[in-house]
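Hi Y.,

Following your request, here is the sequence exactly as I used it, all 1180 residues.
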Amino acid sequence: MADRDEEKRRMHIEMQDMVDGRPANYGISVRELRDLMEVRSHEGYNKLQTDHGGVLELCKKLYTSPNEGLSGSPADVEHRTRTFGSNVIPPKPPKTFLQLVWEALQDTTLIILIIAAIISLGLSFYKPSGELAEQEGGDESESEAGWIEGVAILAAVVLVVLVTAFNDYQKEKQFRGLQSKIEHEHKFSVIRAGDAMNIPVAEILVGDICQVKYGDLLPADGILIQANDLKVDESSLTGESDHVKKGDVRDPMLLSGTHVMEGSGKMVVTAVGVNSQAGIIFTLLGAAGDDVKKDKKKEPEDGDGNADAANYKPTGNSHNTNDTNTTQNSKGAEDGENNQDSEEDANKPAKTGGRKEKSVLQAKLTKLAIQIGYAGTIIAVLTVLILILRFSIEEFVIDKKVWDNFYINHYVKFFIIGVTVLVVAVPEGLPLAVTLSLAYSVRKMMHDNNLVRHLDACETMGNATAICSDKTGTLTTNRMTVVQSYVGGVHHKTTPRFDSLPGSTGPLLMRAIAINSGYTSRVMKVPGDDLPKQLGNKTECALLGYVMDLGNNYETIREEMPEDKLHKVYTFNSVRKSMSTVIPKEGGGFTLFTKGASEIVLKKCDFIIGADGTAKPFTEQHIEQMVANVIEPMASDGLRTICVAYKDYVQGNGEPNQVQYTTEPDWEDEDSIVTGLTCLCVVGIQDPVRPEVPHSIRQCQNAGITVRMVTGDNINTARSIAAKCGILAPGKDFIVMEGKEFNKRIRDQSGEIQQHLIDKIWPDLRVLARSSPQDKYTLVKGIIESKISATREVVAVTGDGTNDGPALKKADVGFAMGIAGTDVAKEASDIILTDDNFSSIVKAVMWGRNVYDSIAKFLQFQLTVNVVAVIVAFLGACLIKDVPLKAIQMLWVNLIMDTLASLALATEKPTTELLERKPYGRTKPLISRTMMKNILGGGVYQLIVILVILFVGENFFDIDSGRNAGIHAKPTVHFTIIFNTFVMMTLFNEINARKIHGQRNIARGLFSNPIFLVIWIGTFIAQVIIVQLGSFALYTAPLNLEQWLWCIFFGVGTLLWGQIITTIPNQKLPGALSWGASTAEEIKTMDDDDVDGAPDDEMARRGQILWIRGLTRLQHQIRVVNAFRMGVDSLDSYENRSLSSLSHSQHSLQTLRQQALKKSGSLDILRSTSGGGGAETNAI
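Below is the corresponding structure, written out as tokens. Let me know if you'd prefer a different format.
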């Protein structure tokens, strides 16, 4: 009885411990799975077999099916997440608003202002002697109000800090959202409940069956169940650049963060999130983060990536990446004799080889900020010296007055004026204008199908002079259909009837297409939609559609020959340009199916199916006839030609086109296997040109941008499509060539690529056909490095394949296809085209030029304000021992006017007018002659008005003079009119600044920008309040209506004056008037300078820390929002990201491991993450 009760109790417990109909306890623990993934190669396979009984037994322990996958039920998902974790890294908390406030307070200039304001505040309570008090003027109440200026400056500083912190907070929040969108876009193919589906990588669970294919970035650790010619790039973990062959017996371990370079397969997920190999490294590095920050002051190169530089090969691209094809020779770092040397090298102040190259605008702004900083520093120092010397000489030498401590007030006032002049001289609104313009553009570009991954690419695109575009999917619709075919000696212009195909050709052709295609490629009928939905490779979908058009069902064939029964698969890659699959024949033997580029596969054919359905000899002469009569006519119609062939292996006697064997062929000897084929058919696949593409290409050509087509297609197909797109214009002597010919012509006798040979080709080259990814890279590199163009070329490139990575990274702007692109291509890109459409690139050009123009507009406006304010302060110091614009007033102009103006001018929408001018290029001045004409012309007008009011204003307005006022004198109407007139002229000049190319109609588009109008009107209202109610705090006195009307009249005068300036022809102006030009050498030199490190190194020692803050903040803001920077400083950018998104950071996990281990000293984790065998010696 007791035994029966015990049995019932045990059964009850077991029933309670059930999840989704299976036991809750798994047959393997997290620790055991983690230990399993620490070994590699045959050692990993042996451990899997001996400890866990093989991969199928492991699947049973994880309660998953190799064919059906997980059930996907909510209970199962929740239980697996609780047991094994989720595929995310626990986020570090974002910086709080108070932390951002504290960071903003570290600004050197603000600290100086705070100290000066506190001294001024303290001195305001000092009572001078009676005689000195009478000389200073003002009654007792005015003297008592002396503290207000100090408080007002402190309040202005607080406002600056709060605005800066709020802007940083908003930017961080906004770009976390951008990262979240990128994460959401990244999905991975898994099998759940027997159905293949794409799910966000963060939802991948332990036990999921993932379908791995060429171009994937693996989101989790797993073990292969089945593999087809799988090769993986594990350089991010091991440092070995050679691709590692993977197989269910050879090396079944797949690791998160690695790239699938070839082949396909299926894996069961064994570790996600922090338990995966990449997650272990990121977690370890996060744990060591505090130590890293502590050591940054001692070893600034660690934080800025100098220690990483050895692992990177500079590619001239617009962001940091690790070229997957570049050997990372880091083995020596682990050798005892080299370890010391490498540490010493790491501690040397070396230039950062791994830093990104500055964008065009960034390089020009860097130079401009330095020049402005020098000028501002000189004028500020001169202003303070003149004020101090003149006051001291007049008071103590000429008037022979006795020193009183009250005089300190004057010196503090002079010092505050000098610091304020410096604040005004450095365009504080410039970093904000850059950030706002980029952020605004990035948000809007998402609606135009441009997902910007690197902010600087946004404005760089505006300077693009060349676009090297793919054909398929970018210029064409990527909706492929078979429209012609050559079967059994007959050229069909329409789809033939299945029963009309000779002999057994039909069934054999159906099997050749259905089986020798990726099983992830499918064509699905959608109810209510005339066209079936194509999933996967579009060329394969076209062939599968052909099978369906012939009245057959490819899915039935695949069910008879499931993927795990395929004997050998040679997957498509850019070298083969074909795909082959070996399957077992019923009754013994094998059949090889091959499909690929027609001229390549035909050369491997010795036979062809004739009109009677039998194999006929296929000689060189027959091939030439086929090319002339079938392939070239198809290609001339813009069709992509694909050849389908087969070969039978039989035991014993067979047909002439069959291969006899006694021992199984060596399937690894691909060259001998894929030869002697029998041609089944040649099909012509149509991929129509997108209807909007010809117009978009004309827009590019009118905008001075040369469009080139770089494709792997047949030269005749490429020429036909290029002519339809408008890339090739009739009557123009443009070059169309194949990759083989291109390679031959750019190399010298020794086989080395020569730039001068490339320079002979690229200017007229419009189509590069049958090109490899290496050809594309060589072309892009050659155009970028060419010096035959006066302004140097800025090149944009599109790519979708894994091997397009080097070209995408080398380009100034890399566009990856959001639909057809592989993860590797997207990772290497700057912008993802979410619709794969060329017209979206044109929109990116418009937005890029708009960003550039927005910054130029703000510079034109800002520099006019700065020039006038600084010169007025300097002349005031020289002429009247005072400045007409008080310190607090200049802070108001600098803070509010600049901040609001940057927002107003940065939110202008792009117009097609932007595409009517040529690109600026790399070396064109940032401030053109037209802009300088407007700056100087507007500045002259404002200076004349202010100086006239300063010296004769009291007579004109019949008011008391404000000159020579005492230290605590009350605000005067005279100086208030000067201040108010200056602000009114600045406000109306903001309208002028909207046009930078000499346009007369300054009102055009004004009312289509509500943000500008709201800010302009709001600033005007704020100025009214300040003038009428500012009193001692802002040193203003209320004005009457007549005085207000005069101020507004002088403001409106800037609009009329602007029209007069516009009439001055630019040709009459000296070229020296342009400012901010950068030669290619200067851009390269600045690229080598560590700007962010400058205040702590050489520049600090030269006393330039005051003016460098504007530049530093600009650099910092752009880097904060760049979510894909390398090194320790970028870790904040990885928060809230799925593990796969972490891998998108484009910095080497190998490098992160070095840094993490350096801080933690955990050699055990080194061994666990580096794997066994040869991989261990190359882990670091």
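The two ends are 65 Å apart (CA to CA).

Thanks again,
Q.
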